[in-house]
Amino acid sequence: MSSTTYECDFLVIGSGIAGLTFALKVAQEGTVHIITKKAKAESNTNYAQGGIAAVWDPEDSFEQHIQDTLAAGAGLCHPDAVELIVRNGPERVNELMKWGVKFSTTPNGRLDLGREGGHRRNRIIHATDLTGREVEQALLNSVKENKNIRIFENHMAVELITEHHLQNKQTRPKQQPIHCWGAYVLDVEADQVKTFLSKTVLLATGGCGHVYLHTTNPSIATGDGIAMAYRAGAWVGNLEFMQFHPTTLFYPGANSFLISEAVRGFGGILRNSEGEAFMANYHPMKDLASRDIV
User: Fold this and answer.
1) Positions marked catalytic
2) What is the DSSP secondary-structure string of the chain?
């Protein structure tokens, strides 16, 4: 039984770009508690290098970006979702800049647009090669200034509070939604389980790369949120769609270190152990082919 209880309007589990942007938006409507199992900046977002794909160049178009995305998706994309995300891209970039994100610019003050695999145009908006860190820090600064938001560091969510915790448990029909009232959370430093109650709970816990032996994800990417949702009775799908970044730095005994896709975008050439450039044998875009091809 936990001895400490917190109540809020919105409970956000995770402190990456998804959790922080949600918190900043809903803070206008009520109180927000953000819980994160490590330091507040320790998220997948913080380690992202390349940048954000968005139509910014007047010579680019939404239609071209949509076509590139659908081609990279090899027929598995939901076209409506792709169109929605692409057309809203510039607005989301402007929103990040409003929250203080400083992207790299050219000498004339325009956003510097890079290029990555699968894109036929330069449309990667970035902050040098540390885009994720810049986004994370800017959002955390905005969160810090918001009196309606509180962050709990070193607090690990262990279980969602749903019908499964009621004394009279009932079998839930497939169509019936799950009601969630919060989460049980371990305060790692105090070694104490606390109860967080909330009207709304957002799972923004990132991926699960460390389920696998080799991954370029940071050590925090252990799939906690997916596991909690599954235990609570949520329907989980598409877990087979796990993409491994094709370019990494290998060093014996060390974790895989991601080599940014921007390296290929700026002219990097993939070669085999014999020094031969080989991508022309596999795709018309050669070294700029999408990750699944590489």
Assistant:
1) 291
2) --SEEEEEEEEEE--SHHHHHHHHHHTTTS-EEEE-SS-TT-SHHHH--S-EE---STT--HHHHHHHHHHHTTT-S-HHHHHHHHHHHHHHHHHHHHTT----B-TTSSBPEE--TT-SS--EE-STT-HHHHHHHHHHHHHHH-TTEEEETTEEEEEEESGGGSSS--PPPTTSPPP--EEEEEETTTTEEEEEEEEEEEE-----GGGSSS-SS-TT-S-HHHHHHHHTT-----TT--PPPS-EE--TTS--EE--THHHHTT---B-TTS-B-GGGT-TTGGGS-TTT-
